Each structure stands twice: as structure tokens, then as C-alpha cells.
Amino acid sequence: MTGGWLRRENASEWVLPRQGAMRVEARIYADETTIEALEHDVRIRSDWSALEQVRNVACLPGILEPAVALPDVHPGYGFPIGGVGAFDLDTGVVVVGGVGFDINCGVRLLSSPLTVAQIEPSLDALVDRLFETVPAGLGSTGKLKLSVDGIDHVLRDGAAYVVEQGFGRPDDLDFIEENGRMDGADPAAVSPLAKQRQFKQVGTLGSGNHYLEIQVVDRVLDPEAASAYGLEADRIAVSIHTGSRALGHQIGQDYLKEMVKASAKYGIDIPERELVCAPIDSEEGRRYLAAVACGANCAFANRQMLAHLVRSAFERVLGAAGSDLRTVYDIGHNNVKIERHTIDGRDRNILVHRKGATRAFGPGRDESPPAYRRVGHPILVGGTMGTASYVLRGTEIGMAKAFGSGIHGAGRALSRKKAAKKFWGERVLSDLGASGIRIRAHSLRSVAEEAPGAYKDVERVVAAAAEAGINRPVARLRPLAVIKG
Question: Is 408 a catalytic residue?
Fold first, then answer.
């Protein structure tokens, strides 16, 4: 990559023109601070550069213009996190690195009619009950124990299977991406080891950046969309952030090995070894897509079970008043799926990879719940334990410029390793407690790795997405209490 890499289009949109082996240009939606950091990593020849990764994605066969990086962009495995790559179904490829190892990691948002004043007297008891009720941390096990037959039902039917077992409400399914079940899932495409690793993990939060937060809607920014979503200022909400756990990770590991062979078999000239891939319509490509659908369904089932546990804890502490927790939306941000988009003025099916990026469809799309179609479905954006999260919505500009994609969080500023060296878990807990945020954590190292200072400023990231016009802020959610693995 040569100097003078990026051309500025406007305040929050930058272009990396085609050069070398790039098949399409890349577009980065970000503010100047993020761009300076991206270019700095290239100048110092960093081993892990998100801008180099965006360039490499733009070199892949069959990619459609442009390769996209969103305001929360940072380096990932092969694809940057905060990256979007869309591919032609006939000439394109499917890339394990374009999904990552936590398939369909995502967020479920629950809303409550209760206010802060109503739950404040019971908040400590509620946090303790949630900490006891929700399995979290490395190696945690869930209430729903599965056999081989049972895990196959989860992989095929997703959240619907969990509801059938009596955990949750049938109307939850109306407010989950894909109604909680991705088509095309084939349990035969998932290894026995991956299934075995998940027998006891449905209904577990996990560790790392996964969390459960009690929040308050502290600001409504788009009254029309907030009204459609049922979000009101000063009302309590709960966010659940987790994914497909060990099963998704094992699927990633299994197919990474397969794609190494497939890349050689089909003579694909990959720009970087972490971008091994296969043609979409190859045997390997089809099997991987079937396995990803299984992983996605497992994640939907996991969050469905966790929502049931959250409701149980609320009802146990708050009585009948705590039982009314409605699913606002549940959406993933590590996925690959076939979608219909307008390309060069023509509607066509394409394969969209989103790695640390969420679907962000604007108004009028049939994929949104009927109650949300007028405004588009919610985008659920995690912040940090000490700042805020956001609900956004998609726009027509985002549909045209970013394949209907949106930011998924603040985005890391420091790797977990660097964060663990810089921050002390005890000090992070003390600082958060002093600011009035209750924290319950299974690991002090996890607290240090996920310290607010390890992340970008979520306000800046949201502002960049809004300024670029690809996402529109709807509501700001402030944390009151956090459960960490």
C-alpha cells in the first residue's frame, strides 16, 4: 500500500481507490481520529492493520463495490471487525474470516414499563439475583441440557425450539432477526465435536466482551422510531450480548482448515492467508453456509434462553411488576447470508458478509417486523460498561452505500492483551462503582480486558455513522448494572 492512501469525500466518508490487486474500491465511514489511527498503523507497518485488511478484502474474487469499513472498525482475523463484504453469487467467494469465530454474536434488547425510581430500591437484589441465575464465565453450563438429537433441533430451529420447550414467549419470535431461525441450516454440516461442545452451553452468557446490562433510556433522539420500538425516556431496558458460544468457535476452526484446502483446490489467489475461502456455489461453500446457519440458530436459541432467565430473575425480585419484559429486537453482528439489494439499478440476490457489523435495513423492507417496517428495524449498538449503548435504525443512504449495514459497538481501541496490561480489574470495578454502576463479574481479568478505556468513544462512533447518513440514532441507553463473565 502506497502513501496518500485515502481520499476524503466528506466529513465521515473516505475512499481507498483501487490499486494493485484490488478489484473494487473501499469506503471507510469514520471520523478523522479513527482515520488517523488507521493510517498510523500502516505507516509503522503494524502487524495488525485494519486498513490493510480492508484493502485485502477488496482483492477477493467476485466482490461487489465497495468493500466497506464502518466507524467502529478495528483489526480482526482476516476481515476487519466493522467490515462488510458483498459478493456476486456466481463469481464470488464465502470467507470464514468474514464471519469470525463467534457466529451470530449479537444483542437482544428487552424493554420494561418500569422506571428507574421504581426499581432503584430493589436494584442491588436484582443484580445479585441475575448474577446467580444467569450462567456466565468461561466453561459455564446452562439449564437446558441437550442430547445429540436435541442439539440438532437447536441447530435447525433456533429460538423456536427453545420456546417449544417452555422457555420464553411465542411472540418473542416476531422480533428476532429471521424470526429466530435462519433457513438452510444443516446439522450434518457441523462436526460432532462442535455439537458436543454445545450440549451444556445453551443459555449461557460466556466471557470476553459478552455481557448482560440493566439500562435506562436516558435520551430519545428519534421520537417516531422510538415510539414504534416502544422505547420511552426513563424506562428500564435490558441488553443481552452473546453468541453461539463453543459451537460457533468450533465451526470456525473446522472450516478454516477446509478453506485452506479449498483455496488451493480452486486456484484462488488469496491476498492474505487469513482470507482462505471457497466459491459460493462449491461443495465447500455450500456446506459452510449451512454450518453458519446452524451456528446462527444456536445463538438465537442461546439469547432466547437467557431472556427467559432474565424474566425469571426480574419476576422473583420485583413480583408481577417485573414480569413484563418485551423483546424489542434481537439481531446478530457476525453473519453471512444471501440478501436482496439494488446493485447498479437492478435488484439482485448477493452474499453479504458482516463481521462486527449488523444488518441495518431501512424503511419498507419485508425482513423487518410489521410494526417496524415504516421506520426500519432497530440496530443494537453496545457501548462500554461505563458509558452508554445506543439504538439506531437503518436509512436509505445506508442501503445504497453500505449494503444496509450498521455499526455494532464502540469498537476496540486496545487489544485485550494490551488492556489487561494497562488496567487493573479491581480499579475498574472501583471506578465504575463510584459512578453508580453496579458490576458483578466472574473474572477480574475479563473486567480489565473490557475496561471502558479499552474502547473507542461510542458517542464519536455513533456520531460518525449518523454524519455519514448510514445509520440514524433513535435512543441512548445508560448502564445501571452490568453482569460480566
Answer: yes
